[in-house]
Amino acid sequence: MTEPPRPADGPAPQPGSGPTAPSATGPAPQPAEVPASPSGAEPAPRPPGDPASTPAGGPALLEVRDLRVHFPITRGTVFRRTVGHVHAVDGITLGLAAAETVGLVGESGSGKTTLGRAIVGLIRPTSGTIMFRGRALDAKDGGYRAERTQLQMVFQDPTASLDPKWRAGASIAEPLRVNHIGTRAERRQRVRELLEVVGLSPVHARRYPHELSGGQRQRVGLARALALQPAVIVADEAVSALDVSIRAQIINLLQQLQQELGLSYLFIAHDLAVVRHLSDRVAVMYLGQIVEQGAAADLYTDPRHPYTVSLLSAVPVPDPSAEARRERIILPGDPPNPASPPPGCRFHTRCWLREQLGGPERCATEEPAPRQISAGHTAACHFTGEVPGRAAGSAAGQTAGPAS
Amino acid sequence: MTAGSHARAAGDAVLRVRDLAVRFDRGHSVVHAVNGVSLELEAGGALGLVGESGSGKSVTSLAILRLLPRHTARIAGEVWFGGRDLIQLNDKDMRGLRGKEISLVPQDPMSGLNPVLTIGEQVTETIQAHENMRRGDARRRAAELLAAVGIPHPGDQLGRYPHQFSGGMRQRVLIAIALALRPTLLIADEPTTALDVTVQAQVLELLHELTVERGTAILLISHDLGIMARMTRRIAVMYGGHVVESAPTAEVFARPHHPYTVGLLRSIPRVADVGRPLTPIAGAPPDAGRLPPGCPFAPRCAWALAACWEEMPPLAPLEPALAAGGLALAAGEPALAAGEPRPGAGAHLLACHNPVVPGEAEAGGPVRPGFRPAPPPPGYGPAVEETA
To answer: Is B281 within 8 Å of chain A by CB?
Structure first.
């Protein structure tokens, strides 16, 4: 990406000919529960704070609404009974525009991987909708499979996600083969093209995974994800297992591919620096819910949820003088078990702000709704105004436009 | 002068590693994991070993503890600790030292604990192995230790098993065991890699507090430069089994002189770089089973000279002109004088024929008119792969 515009203030620029311009598919239909916008001049406008819309207010390529994934906890072997549910994803609303990168951060057990898997159809949601190009993806729908090819996933560990007994070329050609695309010779040609796209050479098609380095294996995983020319790639910790110098190569490749192919990324990672580097917008998850989301620059410079504040302060930064100066908020304890999330605000058991405020009862009883801080920036905290930091309301939630 | 007398000359060093080399015999081939590493850690100090996988940092720490398999690992060099060379020590004396004077916090808290023994048994085992103490006293001591590492209700936890603890709590137990006998040296090998960000912050804080409070020196191994910046006073950068650069932490970040250090620092995303591509290091790390002659970084190095392909330069103090942050070297100028390294606490040591001069680190490459990295000589060992 070359210098995406990230102005600090001023009105949100409309990306010119990009994804938010009215497209052939037209604006996405509005689900009934979404209230109509008070100022309805545009066709099908979004309420300004609607997290499923893109910040510029246009239709999202991918829209997730109130998505829930609950896994049953069972006991017994012969007479299996459900004794509870793990609320892995519990009411997520999120939008992704064309050529946009949304970063998803959170600790283990926050549900970020489950959300990614539900979006690409690897896990069936318990409730909620996933709309792609204005159409609901439903496992019972016959058209689902065709849409499904547009949503692909890159996994964390390429050693585990590639078959050790298959040559790299066979792994890359598999999506084409199962979808009956092309003849064998055409597929072979396409594999050669894909290898080139991800910076490998045709000789690598003949290699087995163990003959490739970690970075090369992750390139093969990317080539396989690109085989069906998807619009959206869910990258689940796709660079986390790589060494620092190799990771930088793959990060650059991801950005270059986005520029060339207009891909959208849902980039799931725990590394906050990498997420900031790649993302236009960032959503922070805690115990199955999004606690804060906004433009990357806003969220990192002016976090408005106490969990985001502590997360950002906990990451060691590669700068010794900054490390010596900065104040860290060390959260007590471990994240609670998602099978029995705390009542009220899920973060209240570890919240440093609640402690500062003398432990208000409201946090323990009432679940906070997302509050709008500025355009596109929301935080689900009753006391978001009490979070110390930059004065709120100075920056509008712009994101980088499409590569121009 | 022998290296041994040199080691004893340094008064306050708790650990002094001289020319440590570790080879693994794999029958048909030899893996050169560590190739002449020298390190020094003063009492109460904090030294970081940073490098990517396969750089030899973990093998170095295991060699110091003499925990490498005896029948395949060939160890050469000296490891001076408390006036004794650990490499020459007999097994019984080494066992007496391990856990008492030098202890280890391993990376994976699950494999570091025995799953079929209670936490209490594992903490008291360490205490009773080294100190003549009754069971009841040892248990009381264990409960105190668990309290010191922030485990709630320590008395009740002694009877529980490792799987009943979270990852962060297990790592706290391992820290409690490691610090049980107030060692003078703690080796922590990627102690927080398996942990979540907020739990990592807790464990790092705990390690920092306890080591400072007790005056324990810490040798911290990590690939995470952020952790290095927070936890260490000095950093040794490893590549291909060599220490290629060693300096005070702030110095490494502010004035790196080895092309690999520069590449590492430029590979991490920073706020200032948002929207710009990173500058990765081309290619992939070498295979320790097929190490090239010369500097192992030469195939990936934009500063490579002809000499780099033939000979590994020794780790030596920075040339005065460079140390002063001054003059740029002309391309092709001879390497640094290979003096006997005297790594004082503030010394900047470098193993490079063609150091990065000020201004080049920011540029990400050599800024010298007409300079081109020297190509590999004909018949150079391993093939140089374009894409990692």
So the answer is: yes
pLDDT tens across B324-334, in order?
Answer: 554 444 333 33
Query: What's the CA gap between B253 and B34, in Å, rounded?
Result: 24
More confident residue, B94 or A41: B94
Within 8 A of B249 by CB-CB distance, chain A residues are 320
B29 touching A (Cβ < 8 Å) = no
B269 closest CB neighbour out of A256, A273, A310:
A273
Does residue B75 contact residue B22 with C-beta atoms inside 8 Å? yes
The residue whose two tokens read 């190095």 is: B301
Q: Where are the domains of chain B?
A: 99-217
Q: Look at domain B99-217 and name its CATH class.
A: alpha beta
* Segment A107-125, tens digit of pLDDT: 888 999 999 999 998 888 9
For B279-322, strand residue ranges (E) read 316-317
Exposure of B132 in the CB half-sphere (CA atoms within 13 A): 0
pTM: 0.83
Task: Determine whether the interchain pair A244/B278 forms a contact, defined as Cβ–Cβ distance below 8 Å.
Answer: no
- Kindly list the domain boundaries of chain A, sorted by start residue: 62-150+230-386
- Mean pLDDT lowest for which of A326-335, A366-375, B66-75? A326-335
The answer on pLDDT for B365 being more than 50 is yes
Within the 165-184 window of chain B, which residues sit less than 8 Å (CB to CB) from chain A? 166, 168-169
Cβ of B387 within 8 Å of Cβ of A245? The answer is no
CA A188, CA A185: separation in Å to the nearest integer? 5
What letter represents residue A253's amino acid?
Answer: L
Fold for the domain defined by A62-150+230-386: Rossmann fold (3.40.50)
